[in-house]
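no rush on this but wanted to send it before i forget. what follows is a protein written twice so to speak, once as letters and once as structure tokens for the fold. mainly i need to know what kind of three dimensional shape the backbone takes. thanks a lot i owe you, the record is right below.
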Amino acid sequence: MTMKVTLFICLIITFIFFCSSKTTTTSTINWWCTQTPYNQTCNHYVAEGKNSTATVSINRFLDITVNAAEEEARVVLKRTQGIEATYPNPPEKTLWHSCVDDFDEAVFTLNMVLDHTHQPSPDDIWTWISASVTDVDMC
């Protein structure tokens, strides 16, 4: 599961680079997914269950993608919390608690990307997504 989260976050990072060089600003979710290096992962987590033929802006697609990554990170966080609860003593409990903290931080930073009230710059978004990848890789 951790690998899926990492790959999905990498998809987002790659997509940001891709988007910065394209002139297209709206297209379908399916089309946006075909432009990413992890097309199947994008289709599974982003397009599935949505109107994937609806036209969306590049910013809306990024929000949908980050939201999907955040939801997946929450799933992994809950699983990690469950595993942590099964270990009553250190060092195993301490190790799993660190993973809980890492995934909790990943969820937090992905939420910062989705919070448009502060009007984050592309550099801010890049930093926050990079931090999420680091948090996931730590565990």
Remarks:
- The chain has a mean pLDDT of 79.
- Helices lie at 2-20, 29-34, 39-47, 58-85, 92-114, 122-138.
